[in-house]
Amino acid sequence: MQPSPRKVLETVTRYAIGIDIGATKVAIATVSEDFRVLRKHEVSTQVASGEILWESIKDVTSSFINESTGELLGIGIGSAAPLDVRTGCLSPVNIPIWRDFPIVANFTELSQGTQVILHGDALALAHAENKLGAGKGFRNMLGMVVSTGVGGGLIIDGKIFTGDSGNSFFIGHHSINFEGRLCVCGRRGCLEAYSSGPQMVAIAIENGWKSTGETFIDLAQSARNGDAIAIDAISQGTHALARGIVNMVGSLDINHVVIGGGVVQSGDIFWKPLEAHMKNESKAIEFLKDVQLHKAELERDAGVLGAALAILG
User: Counting beta carbons within 10 angstroms of the beta carbon of residue 96, is it exposed (0 to 12), middle (13 to 18) or buried (19 or more)?
Assistant: First the structure.
């Protein structure tokens, strides 16, 4: 029998805290030096103000620190973009209550000067999957999150690649159709405007989809049940995703892509059309014929593990 998270935490001498900031929730976890998630709690981003959101995160993080008898090595943050690692601030597209929010300074104060490292949430997933999951051993790899938003993170020559400001591989807002759908970021034809879970649902509704629910879970179930509109919306989303991936891996000459996030967890109803579109989109480019898609293995813990790896290495 596995010990309880509280009991495990009490026997750990050193640990990091991983913060995974997504569009709808923030996950906070303590992670041991041997990469076990010991305690984890999620708070919603659907609150009235940035200050309220920060107070919720602060309360959980403080309780984890205060209730641990181990040594806190630092706090790693993986956040939806854009962000700025130079200033330690966040302005996530899908979290409008945070603009230039000083997340690093706040966590530094909270932890009384402990090391705090910020990077993108998709980069955190890429790091975790490369070290512990589906991308283990790949020297070059693209990691992607497909959920409420779409993001990417790069492993190059076995190392994470952050870029100058921390926003490398901002793939969700790479435009694949300059006259296409209007994205929340203000541009047209962004990959995210077709391939995120909410946008696939929006496309289906625009085309007359009827359902008792309006989430991607509902859309995926309708597609499994044979609903033609649901199937088409997912096909459009996966086609756009495949086109964006091929554009990017073609530029970088990378053959391994690991994809995680809530949308991927829907299974074959999403994965099979994605594979088919990838094959079709890449066939004209000779050196991309061996591009391999991999499902992320760490699932809901990938973000917090990747964030903590910024500290744990």
Answer: exposed
